[in-house]
Amino acid sequence: MNDANVLNELIEVGKAFRLEGEFDSFTLITHGNINTTYRVVYKKPDKSYIFQKVNTYVFHEPKLIMQNIDLVTEHIRKKNPNNKCLHFHHTSDGSNFLFTEEGKFWRVSNDFDSLTYQGSSDPAVLRQAGRAFGEFQLSLSDFDASLLHDTIPNFHNTKKRLEGFFANVEKDEYGRVAEVKDEIDFIRAHRETASHLTELFESGKIPARVTHNDTKINNVLFNKETGEPLAVIDLDTVMPGLASHDFGDAVRFAANTAAEDEKDLSKVSLDLDLYRGFAEGFISAAAPILTDAELETMALGALTIAIELGMRFLDDYITGDKYFTTHYEGHNLVRARCQLTLAADMEKKMDQMNAIVHETAAKVR
Ligand code: GN1
Ligand code: MG
């Protein structure tokens, strides 16, 4: 879609949400892999908003996401009245979304004056991010999970995802399997390790919690002056899950010495100082609820999610790149190789990763 079409579409969306003032300008925010997000500036009065077109290929029932978000933000707001929280605008019929005749699903929220990171080499920043996600988990520990819709069933059910992946490998619909044999072999060799967390959950050894499920550091908004977390955003995948999924997903993103889609695999590794920073923030914030059995699975959560996401990117590659937004041919394969390289490095560091969790927990509990 060209810029003029986007502009017209955004103006119409703004009208539907009855935003005040005159439309001024927009910029595309490019770091999400699923939804399409714009920062839109209005003048008279000056104010900016986040407009988001939800990907309905990924989220089949986007209205249910909005119901989940409403319930969760309401719960968090009640418990922490001073915290910032996502605020969604309403259309004239009182909905917090717009479903257009062409089937596009839009939502509009306020833009915060805040700082976000795509990554940081400073453990203190990771500590604050860990605190944000740990507090998020703590805030939702008394939330009734049965109220939530399972918007993407089995989202972090690694065992089930592996089954789906190997079925797609068998089909080889796009003829890409031969090219990625090494990556598939790596996943096959790690199938048991990556399924272990799911099995611990299924056997009742670790509890289900209401989790964020997409804990990338760019989903935390920080206060520009104090560097403290202001809000956790992107609540699309808030669903029942495991504490170690949230811990692990955050670590595999923010404690990687390289970007999520780094092509030069020699740059990819797990930075133990960054890992420690995140662990300190997360574990000290969520300490009141975390069980010993959960703490035992934190490092495993990181390894599991790195393998799972590597497999998800590879799965998308061999099934025709339909799920994740890609920016060039082969992007999903690059992402998959990066995650699997990270997983291999984590595997070597598991003892140290577990020790850091134990040391941190001993200090704060
Ligand atoms: C997707 O688009 P984004 O960044 O919110 C994905 C996550 C992945 C992530 C990898 C609904 O999240 O699970 O970890 O990409 N979200 C969904 O960057 O599949
Ligand atoms: Mg997300």
What does this molecule look like?
There is one protein chain. The chain has 365 residues and is of the alpha+beta class. The protein has helices spanning 3-16, 62-79, 123-139, 158-171, 181-189, 191-202, 243-254, 272-286, 292-296, 298-318, 331-348, 350-364, and strands at 22-29, 36-43, 47-54, 98-99, 105-110, 209-211, 220-222, 229-232, 239-241. It has a five-stranded antiparallel β-sheet, covered by helices on one side. β1 (22-29) and β2 (36-43) form a beta hairpin. α7 runs antiparallel to α8. It is globular. The relative contact order is 0.13. The mean pLDDT is 95. The structure holds 2-acetamido-2-deoxy-1-O-phosphono-alpha-D-glucopyranose and magnesium ion (MG). The site of 2-acetamido-2-deoxy-1-O-phosphono-alpha-D-glucopyranose (GN1) has 10 residues, from loops.
Strand arrangement in the largest pleated sheet: 1-2-3-5-4
* Share of residues in strands: 5-15%
Order of helices and strands: HEEEHEEHHHHEEEEHHHHHH
Give me the secondary-structure category: alpha+beta
Q: Could you tell me how far the N terminus lies from the C terminus, measured between alpha carbons in angstroms?
A: 53 Å
Radius of gyration: 20 Å
Q: How many extended strands?
A: 9
The parts where pLDDT drops under 50 for at least 5 residues are none
Question: What are the main properties of this structure?
Answer:
365 residues, alpha+beta, 5-stranded antiparallel beta sheet, two-stranded antiparallel sheet, 12 helices, 47% helix, binds 2-acetamido-2-deoxy-1-O-phosphono-alpha-D-glucopyranose, binds magnesium ion
